[in-house]
Structures are given as structure tokens and as C-alpha cells.
Design goal:
Blueprint (H helix, E strand, L loop, with lengths): L1 H73 L16 H25 L1 H19 L1 H12 L10 H25 L4 H30 L5 H27 L7
Helix pairs in contact: 1-7, 2-3, 2-7, 3-5, 4-5, 5-6, 6-7
Length: 256
């Protein structure tokens, strides 16, 4: 009887160990399958994230170089006025043109890929920014409006500069009306694209309109005006980089 019980216990122990080993093997196999399925996606996401961060850092580094060269030009180290941030058709200005043109191309391609009218509106905005910088639209029209309507001077801000703000506000209002109309029937991806781009747009407007207005009211020839001029132009460069980088990151509707 004792021998039978001993054999029976031994058999039960072996059966239990066998089941435990099978469970561990099954769990290990499941873990390996899960890891094999998840690891490529994880690596791809990490690679995409690093790539995006690298592009942003490259754009900001180029902006920083342009700002440093402009400072060196002001200090007399360099003698080519095209290094100045505000110089028309200068190196910084040409860089801005390239950013806006790239942003327009990205958005028009995004419209064809599925963003639809929302991306078209954003593409038109990039085109407007390109024309604004290259043709000085709001400066020229604003000067005529300020003179024709006899806008009052505000401290050191001349009527022409007040007219520039009015024109810029009109352009911005028209854009937002068109954007709101398209968002009413836009997809979830298009709305996320818009919310992402608005961050860079508000930053660009802050430097290009608000800081510019404050700079215009500062007394001429003072150090504060020179500092604000650098803040305005340098801030516009950084904001434009952020805006076009955001357009590039969200270029595919599937990312939304």
C-alpha cells in the first residue's frame, strides 16, 4: 500500500511539473510573439520622433546662426548688409521665403492626401506669408490707407504704421473666417492639424504684429528700439520654423 501511494504521489508531482513547464513555455512563447509584434512599431515610433526632433533642432540652429551673423554685422565684424535680419532680399529674408514656400507645398500635398479644404486654407496662408515678406503687401497698402484715411499718430507710430496694423488685422480676420467655415465639416485629423498649426501662427503674429507695434511706439534711436527690432525679426524666424516644422510633422492625415 505504501509503495502504491509513493508511486501515485511521484506521478502527480511529475504531472504537476510538466503542466507548470508547459504554462511557462506558453507564457514565454506568447511574450515572444507580443514582443515581435510590438517592437518594430515601437522602434519605428522612436525613430520618427528622433527624426522630427532632429529637423526642428536643425531649423532652430540655422535661425540661431542667422541671428548671430546679424549681430556681427551690427557690431561691424561683417560688412555685408544682407546679413541683417530686416534687410530686404537679405540672407535671413531668403530663408523665410524658403520656409513659407515649403509650408505651402506641404499643405497642398496634405490636401491631396486627405486633409481636404482645411489644408488648402493653410496652404493659402503660407502663400500669403510668402507674398507679404517678399512684396511687403501690408506695408505698401497700409501706408496708402493710413495717408488716405488720415489715421492719427500714436506716440512714435506714424499713420502709415497704423495702417499696416489695420491691413494685417484684415488679412488675419479673413483667414480665420475661412478656417472656421472649413472646420465646420472637417475631419478629426484636419482639426488636430489646425490646432497644432495655430500655436506657431499665434507665435508668428505675436512677434510680427504685437512686438512690431510696440517697437514702432518706442522712441527712435534708443537702445530699446534696437533690442525690440532684434526680438521682432529673430522671433519671426523662430516662429516660422516652428510653423513649417509643425506642417511637416502633421503632413500625413493618418498621423491625426
Amino acid at each position: 500500500m505504501n509503495c502504491v501511494q509513493l508511486v501515485d504521489r511521484s506521478f502527480n508531482v511529475l504531472l504537476t511539473n510538466s503542466n507548470t513547464m508547459k504554462e511557462r513555455s506558453s507564457t514565454s512563447s506568447t511574450a515572444r510573439v507580443f514582443a515581435s509584434r510590438m517592437s518594430p512599431a515601437t522602434h519605428a515610433e522612436r525613430s520618427s520622433y528622433k527624426h522630427a526632433v532632429g529637423v526642428l533642432l536643425l531649423l532652430l540652429a540655422i535661425d540661431a546662426v542667422m541671428i548671430v551673423l546679424a549681430v556681427m554685422q551690427n557690431r561691424g565684424v561683417l560688412t555685408d548688409p544682407r546679413f541683417l535680419l530686416w534687410w530686404e532680399r537679405g540672407f535671413p529674408e531668403m530663408l523665410q521665403y524658403a520656409k513659407y514656400a515649403a509650408g505651402a507645398i506641404i499643405m497642398f500635398r496634405g490636401a491631396a492626401r486627405g486633409y481636404g479644404r482645411t489644408a488648402v486654407v493653410w496652404g493659402m496662408l503660407f502663400m500669403l506669408l510668402l507674398c507679404e515678406d517678399s512684396l511687403m503687401i501690408h506695408e505698401r497698402i497700409g501706408a496708402r490707407i493710413g495717408t488716405y484715411l488720415h489715421f492719427p499718430s500714436i506716440r512714435s507710430m506714424e499713420p502709415a504704421q497704423v495702417g499696416e496694423i489695420v491691413v494685417a488685422a484684415g488679412e488675419g480676420g479673413t483667414f480665420f473666417i475661412a478656417l472656421v467655415l472649413t472646420l465646420r465639416t472637417a475631419s478629426h485629423a484636419s482639426r488636430r492639424l489646425t490646432f497644432a498649426l495655430l500655436v506657431g501662427l499665434f507665435a508668428l503674429a505675436g512677434f510680427g504684429v504685437i512686438v512690431d507695434a510696440i517697437n514702432s511706439m518706442a522712441s527712435r534711436g534708443t537702445w530699446i528700439r534696437r533690442v525690440l527690432g532684434f526680438v521682432e525679426d529673430g522671433g519671426e524666424m523662430v516662429a516660422a520654423s516652428l510653423l513649417v516644422w509643425t506642417a511637416w510633422v502633421w503632413r500625413d492625415p493618418e498621423r491625426g
